[in-house]
Specification:
The two termini are 45 Å apart. The protein has a 6-stranded mixed β-sheet with strand order 12-15-16-9-17-18, sandwiched between helices. A 4-stranded antiparallel β-sheet has the order 4-3-5-6. The chain has a 4-stranded antiparallel β-sheet with strand order 8-7-10-11, covered by helices on one side. With 634 residues, it is of the alpha+beta class. It has helices at residues 17-28, 30-71, 73-128, 133-138, 141-183, 185-232, 234-239, 243-295, 312-353, 446-453, 476-481, 497-501, 510-519, 523-528, 546-559, 576-589, 602-605, 624-633; strands at residues 299-302, 305-309, 365-372, 375-378, 386-391, 398-402, 407-414, 423-430, 435-440, 461-466, 469-470, 483-486, 495-496, 536-537, 564-568, 594-598, 610-615, 618-622. It is built from 18 helices and 18 strands.
Length: 634
């Protein structure tokens, strides 16, 4: 098999992504991070002070030796012992402060990290709930899920480890540069040469590593999307003997993930050994240079001036600090990959959070009301009667229109993409209490009509009126609250039967729920369970047959008691007798409810007063005779 060439466009991480993460951090935890910054600075400064103490201690020892040669060793020791003890105690105090600061900022960062991830998940999920369906149509569910797992985990590593370590390393490096320059600029030049070599390696090797870490995030999202899709369709995979092809498809995606991860970690893993060896070479070079300068008695050049030759009191702390300096340069280089991964993950998170939410310019609201002397009066309490509250922007008046369930589509055009119209010049109506059906071939646009009525999508041209009001003027939440919807795909959530059918009406009583289950012909199997309406339901109705799950979904829509019931192939999983009984129950108990159904079943069409045929982007009303013939054909 020829080797596949990776033609994916490189992921572009927007500029300012890392800065945006930091701003969000300070927005959420300003006080915590201020304390962390102080503790980090204190800890970092404390880490560089021992070299100064070493310098002073060596000078005291030299002084003691000089006194000892003249006055005896005991006199020399007595002369410097007090100062050395004082320096030791001060150093111990410095270490104690550093330990306390380290403990404090690590505890605080644990709180900040988990709290920040919690807030990020809340932001993402809250934003996701406001996205239009187009987003979910164009992104795999697994890829969306990876935002909440892999991408968010890159932020965990960034916040808990990378940012504190980077700040700590930068402060220590700054202190080291100051102190090294204070000791000797001659030896500092040797250090700078080593730093140039380190940064050159980091730019070359680290740049390649970063590029593949970004690709790794992209590949991981694709793998998770594919796995989620195959888990959902596992029955289809098995019934069509597609296991081997599915495995081959997965192997291809997994192979790409392996290559990206291998390349990323290959470069990342060789970076530290290279930098470590450069640091060792630098350490030796500084020691040789310091020894040579001492032997040759070259006048020392430092920030404090040009003067006496180098002494052992300056060279030893310098060499020790050089190792500390190199270690922190390596620390920064090591964190580069984590920062790049976090930037890639954060860019994906922000791409989700920055998606344009579903627009809603509606101002007509659904309110509780009562009717007195033919006049509709708004009420704060639930009355069982609803009306549209329509403020007229032109004159500032407010009118109330009783919620009745009258729907009119007037010369409507719609396409999921502008280049291809699904519906063209569609005109139809459903009067309050009427049962209206749509028939047509699969993909003709029947489901699209129900999606337009509840404004999952907005039309390109024409108007849709609900009780005489343009639905674009109605707030989407209120519009959907006035509809009972049974979707083509039955979606039940993990929980109990009661929690599922109460989904659209949380205040429903147990008696109302049982009646809804009776209307949907679901009470027979629910009541046989020992838990009754408290029986458990798995994800997507797991544990129930398709017919049982569909009847629970019908009960959920009926319980909402909306004036319009949209039924999109809502009885497709039911047998003919059960389907007929469900429809009879709905018609009998809810005679004033407008029902709009998409179906092919003769038993459904025969119960409808009006039947529309959807074909070639057009919709036309057909006669009872033609509808019966079409039903038999379908």
């Amino acid at each position: 098999m020829p080797k596949k060439i990776d033609t994916r466009p490189p992921i572009q991480v927007p500029k300012g992504t890392l800065l945006r993460v930091v701003k969000l951090l300070f927005k959420d935890y300003p006080v915590h991070l201020l304390v962390v910054a102080v503790c980090l600075l204190t800890s970092a400064v404390s880490a560089t002070l021992p070299s100064l103490f070493m310098n002073k201690t060596i000078k005291l020892i030299e002084q003691g030796l000089a006194i000892g040669k003249e006055l005896g060793w005991e006199a020399g020791l007595e002369a410097v012992a007090g100062d050395i003890t004082r320096l030791t105690l001060i150093l111990m105090g410095v270490y104690a402060v550093a330990l306390a600061c380290s403990f404090t900022y690590n505890r605080l960062m644990a709180i900040v990290t988990q709290g920040f991830l919690h807030k990020m998940r809340v932001r993402m999920f809250g934003g996701m709930q406001r996205l239009p369906l187009r987003y979910f149509d164009s992104h795999t569910h697994g890829d969306i899920m990876s935002h909440y797992t892999n991408d968010i985990d890159t932020l965990r590593q960034l916040v808990s480890q990378s940012l504190p370590n980077l700040l700590n390393a930068i402060v220590i490096i700054t202190m080291c540069i100051s102190i090294l320059s204070y000791y000797s600029l001659w030896m500092f030049i040797v250090v700078l040469l080593g730093v140039v070599a380190m940064f050159t390696v980091t730019k070359t090797v680290g740049g390649n590593s970063a590029r593949f870490f970004v690709r790794q995030q992209q590949s991981m999202g694709k793998v998770e999307g594919f796995v989620e899709e195959m888990m959902t369709g596992q029955k289809v995979v098995q019934v069509f003997n597609h296991e081997e092809q599915t495995k081959a498809d997965f192997d291809g995606l997994n192979e790409q993930l392996f290559k990206d991860a291998e390349s990323a970690n290959k470069f990342a893993n060789i970076l530290m050994p290279i930098l470590g060896n450069i640091g060792n070479i630098m350490y030796v070079a500084v020691a040789v240079a310091g020894g040579a300068l001492m032997i040759l008695k070259v006048p020392n050049l430092s920030l404090v001036g040009y003067g006496a030759p180098l002494t052992i009191a300056a060279v030893v702390p310098f060499i020790n600090m050089t190792r500390q300096f190199c270690a922190n340069i390596s620390q920064i280089s090591q964190q580069v990959n984590a920062v790049v991964m976090a930037q890639a993950g954060a860019a994906r998170l922000f791409a989700l959070m920055d998606q344009q939410p579903e627009t809603d310019e509606g101002y007509v609201k659904l309110v509780n009301c009562r009717e007195e002397n033919g006049e509709i009066i708004e009420c704060p309490e639930r009355t069982g009667m609803w009306a549209w509250k329509h403020p007229h922007q032109a004159d500032g008046t407010v009118t109330y229109t009783k919620l009745a369930g009258d729907v009119v589509l007037d010369h409507v055009d719609f396409g999921y993409v502008p280049e291809k119209m699904v519906l063209h010049d569609v005109t139809l109506f459903a009067e309050p209490g009427q049962k209206v059906a749509f028939v047509g071939a699969t993909g003709a646009g029947k489901t699209t009509i129900t999606n337009l009525i509840n404004r999952f999508y907005d039309i390109a041209d024409g108007k849709i009126r609900y009780d005489g009001i343009n639905i674009n003027k109605i707030q989407k939440s209120d519009l959907r609250r006035s509809l009972g919807v049974i979707l083509q795909d039955t979606n039940l959530f993990t929980g109990t039967v009661m929690e599922n059918i109460r989904y659209g009406r949380p205040d429903a009583t147990e008696e109302e729920m049982i009646q809804a289950l009776r209307d949907a012909c679901a009470w027979d199997f629910v009541s046989k369970n020992l838990k009754g309406i408290h029986m458990n339901v798995g994800e997507r109705g797991n544990g129930l047959s398709e017919g049982q799950a569909q009847r629970i979904a019908i009960a959920r829509a009926v319980l909402r008691d909306a004036p319009i019931l949209l039924m999109d192939e809502a009885t497709s999983a039911l047998d003919i007798a059960t389907e007929r009984q469900v429809l009879r129950n709905i018609i009998k108990r809810h005679p004033y409810k407008t029902c709009i159904v998409t179906t092919h079943r003769p038993s459904v069409l025969n119960m409808c007063q009006r039947v529309y045929r959807v074909v070639d982007t057009n919709v036309r009303e057909i006669s009872e005779e033609e509808s019966s013939r079409l039903a038999m054909d379908y």
